[in-house]
TrEMBL record:
One of its GO terms (biological process) is DNA recombination. Residues 474-604 are annotated as: Disordered. The lineage of its organism: Eukaryota, Sar, Alveolata, Dinophyceae, Gonyaulacales. Residues 886-979 form the ATP-dependent DNA ligase family profile domain. It comes from Alexandrium monilatum. This is ATP-dependent DNA ligase family profile domain-containing protein. GO terms for molecular function: ATP binding; DNA ligase (ATP) activity. Keywords: Ligase. Residues 578-587 have a biased composition (Basic and acidic residues).
Length: 979
């Protein structure tokens, strides 16, 4: 009976053979409950011709709908998804009277084998019940909905190894962790075991096939995530993607350990990495790449699962020959245990739901960059030093091995040093340690109350990090009675610790800047020098991560803009009605009356604002810190555009100073900068800007050179200004020399323009990276291309002058091909096999390519995952559906190629694409550096292009990279006269 099995339901993982995305969330849980109870002999019947002819499942349904019982339906081609879908839609009915059994002779071995496969799909390879997974997914989506997060808006931000379901569950776990941290900080309590379980139950795991040393017998993969510092295949030390993307979840795990510093250890336990495991009993093994000292704790409701540890294992005895009487067994559900991961250990089989956390340090961690280690410290990792690692090692005596007899100390009655430590934690309070000693023995110490130790603060700004409030350092005297009263109010317990929407931005993207209003309406005090000195020297102020978490959920410009648009729409509708009445009475146009009514309050607000003068904005000595706090972005931008219209040569300076002023004065720089860029660079903004800004944009639009100068201004603003961080407001950057300043400006302009193009012209991810204080080199990583998201195409420089072109190309190896007329497209093939077609940044798959051409394209692409560029020729006589000329490859099997030369990209294109039918690679001719093209050769190629109805020829430098979104000198279009 399928539904009554006592096997552990692996409630916490999503990595099963069945793709849950194929199972819609709209099915009632009762459907899964009923289908999961069926056996191969359950009698069923199907509605005749229930599915429409021409659909994908029609022929399959016509076959298996003749079945009389479940096993027969599976043999005739039904899938588990089909049975769930048909039962939910009432196409399939189960006979109420199941007393009539199917004769044994009818059920053959083939049908029994198929039904066993059906059970595997319904349960998953590790016992994962399909309806349990579905319930978990619904719980995660409900959590996101409750917090106001639209999961569809977040899908574009997941890393390439996450499915949509995996990201939804992990995102919900991170949200729950943020709430827990806020509650714990408000109540002044530690992170409890229940807190950890609340976030672990939502977490989703990827299949881990690389942990061969721990794989139980018969397993091909396990549920295990490595969080923190690792070495990639090139030997470089990096932070794993989940560590970077889910900071609140990580902080809950790290805080659980650092909140429980053992009395035997004079410092926080040092670690660089966490191994998070679920649902498997690791076989006997020794860790590799581990410095040794490791803390471990198990969570969940389970029986068994003890950790068996050989404390005197010196690696001279093989794993198979280690004796059971030499091991020490520990119940990890009772508390943290300290052991050496390089010595043999294993986990006993268990039943139930078991998570485990292993905190350890990887070897040669000191070779990691400062930025990488700082990003771990922000998530409360206790990065080891020589001193702290030595202190941890003193608790673990050197192994004696198992070849010798009893030690001399034990023979003469001298107490040996403990082999391993475990700290038993009661539910009511912290407890004293249980100290296992000797060979195969454990000394059980009765749990006693542990004296409360004064806790060393891990950061002076934890409340600022999770609640959006800057708090003074502990122990510091308040600088004023008002601050003392505010501090007392903050320290008092709140009846409801759940963060409100206004606090979620601070929770997920950092603390509110000093001087910003907090949730109680009080303005946050600035931290004084005395308070900074009161901060313990052992824990420096939290720095802003250079890698940063990419999820500042609930604070995006688009979401804030939607909320404001809805509010303004209500006000506008009321104003419109009033304006209509006034217009009818005065015989004036309603639009004029409405504009005057809207502009009147804006004019009053504008009169109260103190804006920089035009001369100040046009000056290179502008001081952005003097900008009025809370000034509106539209007012500043309108003033800057007035300067740009009157003095075009000062347009970049005035725009740059405007962006710098917003970094200093805006309460929400991400939202304000995003709206400013949309107004400047998009053809039409989603929301109509104020009248003064509309007029300034109209005047500037006739004179502006293009979007390039806006990006240059933005690059200069961030090159000269360090954005606000959790511990400090925005401030000007300092440079050792003028040469260093110029180099920074040039590097930032180049990197920002490239990142803007590779991110598809989307402002929000670019601004998030800039506000995280990313250096120019890091922008390429944070805002690089990814399959499924369109890149802005690289434009060619056009010319009709042969002599000018030859002069520009002097000293370059080039490739020449025809310039085909038609629509330029970008083709993305995902790892799942789906195709996405983009024209510019807009997806046009179903409206541009006919089915015959799409089929030819699918047949031509040989890569598992790729991005190629092509031109669609409509007037091809030999192919009525059109011809697709594919000329460049920008992505191949998980590797971006935009940093590669054209020569390398063309070689990749030949591997990715096999021309067939209407999908072709255009013919080309290469000219080496030693044999450059002449005017006569290019002239003849231009004539051939004219005979083929082409606009001209494309001349491309073979050694240049792809510059997305730029009009680049890497590519020239030599056009025919009159083309």
């Amino acid at each position: 009976h399928f539904g009554s099995s006592s096997t552990c339901f692996q409630y916490g993982h999503l990595a099963c053979d069945l793709s849950i995305r194929a199972m819609p969330a709209s099915y009632n849980e009762a459907v899964y409950r009923m289908v999961s109870k069926w056996t191969e002999t359950t009698r069923i019947s199907f509605v005749k011709d229930a599915k429409r002819p021409g659909t994908k499942s029609y022929e399959r349904y016509q076959s298996y709908s003749q079945a009389r019982y479940v096993g027969e339906a599976l043999r005739l081609g039904a899938k588990p998804e089909d049975l769930v879908h048909d039962y939910a839609k009432k196409y399939c009915k189960m006979h109420k009277d199941q007393r009539v059994k199917v004769p044994e002779g009818i059920m053959g071995e083939e049908e029994k084998a198929i039904f066993r496969k059906f059970l595997k799909h319904m349960r998953g390879p590790s016992g994962c019940n399909m309806r349990k997974v579905q319930a978990k997914k619904l719980k995660a989506l409900e959590k996101l909905k409750k917090l106001g997060i639209d999961f569809k808006d977040m899908r574009g931000e997941k890393n390439g190894q996450e499915t949509n379901d995996l990201q939804a569950l992990r995102l919900a776990a991170d949200c729950a962790a943020g709430e827990l941290l806020a509650e714990a900080e408000t109540a002044g309590r530690k992170i409890s075991e229940k807190d950890v379980m609340r976030v672990l139950e939502l977490w989703a795991f990827r299949k881990n096939e690389s942990r061969l040393n721990v794989l139980p017998k018969g397993k091909q993969w396990v549920n295990s995530d490595t969080l923190g510092l690792i070495r990639d295949r090139t030997g470089k030390f990096i932070v794993t993607a989940p560590t970077r993307d889910y900071p609140n979840f990580m902080t809950v795990l790290t805080r659980y350990l650092t909140d429980r510093r053992p009395a035997e250890l004079e410092c926080d336990f040092p670690f660089t990495t966490i191994s998070l495991n679920y649902g498997y009993a690791a076989k006997r093994h020794r860790d590799s790449g581990n410095l040794g000292p490791s803390m471990i704790k198990a969570f969940g409701k389970f029986k068994g699962g003890q950790l068996n540890y050989w404390p005197d294992d010196d690696k001279n005895t093989s794993l198979e020959n280690l004796r059971d009487e030499d091991k020490v067994s520990m119940d990890l559900s009772q508390g943290l245990a300290l052991f050496d991961g390089n010595r043999a250990h294993e986990v006993d089989p268990f039943t139930g739901e078991r998570f485990s956390l292993v905190y350890f340090s990887i070897d040669k961690y000191w070779k990691a960059t400062t930025e990488v280690l700082d990003s771990l410290r922000e998530r409360n990792y206790s990065i080891p030093t020589e001193e702290t690692m030595a202190l941890a090692r003193t608790l673990l005596p050197a192994p004696r091995g198992y070849a010798s007899g009893q030690s001399l100390t034990s023979m003469f009655g001298v107490n040996e040093k403990p082999k391993v430590y475990q700290w038993i934690e009661s539910q009511e309070s912290d407890a004293a340690p249980t100290v296992p000693i000797g060979r195969g023995q454990v000394r059980t110490v009765q749990t006693v109350q542990k004296p409360q130790q004064k806790e060393v603060p891990k950061s002076a700004d934890l409340k600022a990090l999770f609640m959006g409030v800057c708090t003074p350092a502990r122990g510091a005297e308040p600088s004023s009675p008002a601050e003392a009263a505010a501090g007392a109010a903050e320290d008092s317990p709140k009846p409801d610790a759940t963060p409100k929407c206004a606090d979620l931005k601070a929770m997920f993207s950092g603390a509110a800047p000093a001087g910003q209003k907090n949730a109680e309406g009080a303005r946050t005090p600035l931290r004084s020098d005395a308070q900074e000195e009161a901060q313990p020297s052992s824990t420096p102020p939290r720095k802003e991560s250079l890698l940063g978490g990419k999820r500042s959920m609930l604070t995006s410009g688009k979401k804030a803009k939607k909320a404001k648009t809805a509010e303004q729409g209500t006000k506008a509708s009321k104003a419109k009605g009033a304006a209509k009445e006034v217009a009818e009475a005065s015989k004036e146009p309603a639009g004029t009356a409405m504009e005057e009514e809207e502009e009147a309050p804006r004019a009053e607000e504008l009169a109260k604002e103190t804006l920089p003068t035009a001369e100040e904005l046009a000056s290179s000595k502008f001081c952005p810190a003097e900008a009025q706090k809370g000034v509106r972005w539209s007012s500043l931008l309108a003033r800057a555009l007035q300067v740009a219209v009157t003095s075009p040569e000062a347009s970049i300076v005035s725009l740059s100073n405007t962006f710098r002023a917003l970094l200093h004065a805006s309460e929400d720089p991400l939202n304000d900068l995003c709206q400013a860029l949309e107004s400047l660079m998009l053809p039409a903004a989603d929301r109509l800007p104020p009248k003064a800004l509309r007029e300034a944009l109209a005047q500037w639009g006739t004179a502006k050179a293009g979007n390039a100068e806006v990006l240059r201004a933005l690059a200069q603003a961030f090159a000269l200004t360090r954005p606000a961080r959790a511990s400090a407001p925005a401030e000007p950057r300092t440079f050792a020399s003028e040469e260093g300043r110029r180099a920074m400006l040039a590097a930032m302009e180049r990197a920002l323009a490239r990142a803007h193009g590779e991110s598809g012209g989307r402002f929000e991810p670019l601004l998030r990276a800039l506000l995280a204080d990313c250096r120019p080199a890091e922008l390429y990583c944070r805002c690089g291309p990814r399959c499924g998201a369109a890149l802005l195409p690289m434009a060619a420089q056009e010319t009709r002058d042969l002599e000018v072109l030859l002069s520009e190309l002097a000293g370059s190896a080039v490739l020449v091909e025809q310039c085909y007329p038609g629509q330029r497209l970008q083709v993305h093939k995902s790892a799942a096999g789906s195709l996405a077609i983009f024209s510019g940044v807009r997806e046009v798959a179903g409206t541009v390519l006919e089915e015959a051409l799409m089929s030819a394209l699918r047949e031509s692409i040989q890569a598992r995952e790729c991005i190629v560029e092509a031109v669609l020729q409509r007037d091809a006589q030999e192919a009525p559906e059109g011809v697709l000329q594919v000329f460049d490859c920008l992505w191949q099997d998980g590797r971006p190629l935009v940093r590669r030369s054209l020569r390398q990209r063309r070689a990749a294109l030949e591997q990715v694409l096999r021309p067939c039918g209407s999908v072709r690679i255009p013919p080309s001719e290469e000219f080496a550096l030693e044999d450059p093209p002449t005017a006569e050769v290019l002239g003849s190629l231009l004539e051939e292009a004219g005979a083929c109805n082409c606009r001209g020829v494309m001349v491309k430098r073979l050694e240049r990279e792809y510059e997305a979104g730029c009009t680049s000198s890497a590519c020239y279009a030599l056009l025919r006269p009159g083309a």
